[in-house]
Amino acid sequence: MSTTTLSYVGAHKLTLQQRVLCLIGLLLALLFGPYIAVYFKDGGIPDKFFNFPATTPGDVKPAPTLIMTVGISVLFIATMLLLIVPRLFGFKKPPPIARAAKRKARATLPSWFYIGGIAFAGTVVFTTLHLQRPVWLNDWSLLPLWWGFVLVLDGIVYYRNAGRSLAATATTELIAMGVLSVSGWLLFEYFNFFIRLNWYYPFSGLLHHDKFLIYAVLGSSAFIPMAFEWYQLLCTFPGLAVKYKFGPKVVWPLWVRMTILIVALAGLVASAFYPNDLFFIVWLSPLIILAIGLGMLGIWTPFISIKQRGDWSFLLVFAPTFLFQGFVLEGANWLSVKHLANGEASGFNPAYWHYCIPYVNQMHIFEMPLLGYLGYIPFSVYCWIWFIAMAFLMDIPTTFSLSEEYK
């Protein structure tokens, strides 16, 4: 199923050129909305406002409050219940014939599984030992770390999916994911300035500024591939192919979608004025704006099947992908430095990051506050939506899913 096929799922009168211009307009609104807000709020962009990478935290963040802790906890629990026990939310039990999916034939583990495993495990061991040399390995550790893990996941998918995987069957698509992943993540680095640095890189000074920029670009290339590899792996479990297939249809009229889109954009703009109170909006607005915009332009998204058939499979199988990956990311990050008794850290990893998130800075798992992991769920879906949007603009052919159950 190609991008071209997925681009015309509804009866729309807009031409292809008009669709492209509308999508570019949404992207420009994402970029310049908060920028214009800061410009008028402060009478111009403050000096060193876009200082990347930040080595120190931004403004002092509000401490956790009971209402925020309870509110976010309830939302987190509800999200987990939707993923684990969807029948609580009106999903029907799949009929026996739908549940009786056959297990696919197994292939042998491919060579890149072992190459990726050596690269990933070797880098984890090296950074965990906090060795200063070789300096080049510290400087570029993200590449073997994250791409090694991508190859490991892909090898497992290849084994469980009868010799089909992104690396084996859709190599061009995997490369495209890596390229488009860079812009997808740097957009969040950009938004981080407007919420006054919810994360920063205390050891980034170990690298020259220009070198760190290259490092950030290359390292972030693995984010979208990671999400899709987890998705492909989850798709190899037959039960998930039908777990969310018989859910409630959700059809919102145009005025509701337009209202949500405007509110999401307004929230992103307002985050420049209220960076602490609206810190969470940067994880929601890009997803909401692009998903609604793509749907209105007749471009396929994982939300389409919910509207048409009540099939939530695409969305809910993909949603936890970066939650799983998040534990891997945060664990490797935490292990890469020494944690001192006074709460500070020391080490040689220039990519090490630390969080200072308002209202949720408590009960940490690794560096991330426990409630902060909720942000990984919308970020998972954002990875897919961003890839769809960029693939459409650049006319990149893609299958979006290699799982037969989902086609």
Automatic annotation (TrEMBL):
Question: Where does the sequence pass through the membrane?
Answer: 20-40, 66-90, 111-131, 143-162, 174-193, 213-233, 254-274, 280-300, 312-329, 373-393
Q: Which domain of life is it from?
A: Bacteria
Q: Could you tell me the keywords of this UniProt record?
A: Membrane, Transmembrane, Transmembrane helix
Which spans of this chain does the record mark as coiled coil?
A: none
**Is Membrane a UniProt keyword of this protein?**
yes
Would the keyword Transmembrane be found if you checked this record's keyword annotation? yes
Question: What is this protein's record name?
Answer: Small-conductance mechanosensitive channel
State the organism of origin: Puia dinghuensis
